[in-house]
Amino acid sequence: MKKALQLIALRFRRTWPVMLAISVFATALGWVWWANDLLEISDDERGAYDDGVKKFTGKPWFPWGKVDRSDRTVIVAIDDKTFADIAANPAMKASYGSWPYDRNIYADVIDYLHAAGAKQVVFDATIDEPKMDPTGDVAMGVALKRTGLPLYVGFNVTPQAKPLPKVEHPVNHPPPRPEPAVAAPPPSPPAAAPRSDDEQFPADDEQFPTGDAAPADAGVARAVDLARVADLYAFPVEVRGGLNLRTIEPTELRDDKGALTGEKRSRWPVPTIEPLLGPVAGFGLVAIEADEDGKMRKTSFVYTDGVNTYVTLPVAAAADALGAEKIILEPKKLTIGTREIPIDRDGTAWIHYGGPYKDRFRSVSLVDVIRLKDRQEKEPGAGFELFKGKHVFIAGFALGTADAKATPLEQDIPAVVKQIETLENLLYDGFIIDAPLWVSLLFTLLVCFCSVALVLIVQNTFVDIGWPVLLYVGFFLVTGSFLVLTEVHVLSAMPSLAGTIASVLATAWARLFASREREQMKEMFKAYMESDLVDLMIEQHELPKLDGEVKRITAYFSDIKGFSTFSERFHENPKDLMRLLNRYLSAVTPVLTKEGACIDKYIGDAVVALFGAPVSHEDHALRACKGALKAQAMVRELCAAFEKEGLPNVTTRIGLNTDELLVGNIGSAQLLDYTAIGDGMNLASRLEGANKAYGTLILMGENTYREVHEQVVAREVDVVRVAGKHVATRVYELVGLVGEVDAKVLELHALYAQALTKYRTRDFVEALKLLEQALAMNAADGPSLTIKARCEAFLAEPPPPEWDGVADLEK
What is the pTM of this model? Predict the structure, then answer.
């Protein structure tokens, strides 16, 4: 783990400028792609938005997406049950007729909802065509006038020759809504005027449902006061911050065969029928506001036809509910009365659908409301708890009365769901808003940087291929969970696209510029170094040079004791010797490489290793000591196994020495060998052989001891002069790590140190006494036996006067 973390850190330090450059470039490219909607990336964004909302809304494993069932809104549904029950009930059918029902049915509903204490009633339809029999129209208007129940009705736009007159609303003083006496039934429209018995529920094929084009003077033909209509429809809006209101665009007319004529006509609001103009509390535009794929995701709140400003139906209801005389629209904020609602910078917002509409809102069939009204004489207050203090939406649900629309959560649901959720967002919940562009760009940069880092640091083919795929197919999970949790929409398509681009660029950079040298070095060193160490060497830019370099390292030499005698047993079967030797080398080598060794070479049974090259380690001397101790432990285990198999012992002697050595790829351009040369290397080899003279297993030079004496237990064995050298050096026996050596061993070492001092001062008699005490503790202690023999020899024949206590080692 430590090596892996070190490798990651080294790769990061080496390549972070490249990572940053690629990330910035990919982020910029992603932004250009997004800003210009290349290859319709906005479709991908909408798809990711929908996937995120569906994945995390109403899922039991994601508590923050829990569906909140509204106790504030109820739907009165004109559904299939209403159709069936009215058709089967003679009394109801006599009163209301067949669909489209006489409007006195709504008069009865209004009476009941008022008695039940409904807070508001929103009629999600336009009522702009008078019935042939105006009795029901007048009854509906009378019911509204009598009850004072706040009813909000939608209005439509259609091509007409004349706009509604311009309405001037003084700032902070909009005109009060007129409440004239209920008008007499209007005259029947001229024969030329088209007439429909439908309630003009919104159509589903246009952004602004229009129905049939009305004649140029349709409003005048109905004897409607257009100035009065404009005063009721136009809503005072204060626009700040340079926002451009969404304009109701002209439409291109069609001929009798349905072909486009090339003639465009502006669309103006269609007046509601005369009996409702006064009693209705407010009017709002019933804009479907669907995206290109037909899904309703956003709303714009305010529109203009170039003459007046109009609010949508939910805004009209919310304005009255909050007592607002005007609304203030500005970048990132919509103010209605005292309520400030965060929205997007462009004056729109994402509608927050809190869950499937059947889980969110209770609906009651229209026919059941009629039945509740009829029960009032016998059961006063029946059903009032369903509507008291609630916002009530009347909308078509049955086929032929409603538009089948789609939201990010559901397909084929009544369009009224969009109006209900918008009102809920305006009054209670708040909308989902876009994160500032800089946040999405910063997030994109982070995704790009992580993508590049994965490619350049992990360096795995599966990551190179899998990460871009994961970004493309699963990135919505990150932004979707964040959206449902925070109600903030961070872009998904741009980061995933940019992240994919960044991954591809990073892979290309690695393959073209970074991998060739790395693979060559791995191939060269993988046979005698751990792959992790090779990676570290490459990332540290410590690539060996053909002409070598001088580095302070620790050399390691080992050999099997008595290998010549050892091999004689296999004289008749040398293959068995080879197999046994391979077992030995296979056991020892991993122990050394795990401590950071580079295996220089195998010379028969001998192992030559380097610590500190080619990979630099400040603690190379300590690593060499640990490697030597672990190698001896491994040999002991191997000997136990060999003994059970009847094989000879493989006792190993080791020499360690630290020095400035010339290391590198030494050889020819055709054949290279990574090794080290120098006097320090020769000393390590001599120390390995000196173990035989002292009866030890691990000897180290003075330089090594100086670097590790605080971490290891080692005793000075002697001062020696190797063959061919005049300079003497102290040698030490490595016994173990600090804290891991028995106290009796330390006591023996203390006696030996005292004896060695007496020996060097020619006090051979006292030295012998101390050595006898040491041997009494361990009769097989090699250094004590060696120095004891010398003391006895010098007592028999004293050394010459120039004797300096240094032992000359044979080659």
Answer: 0.65
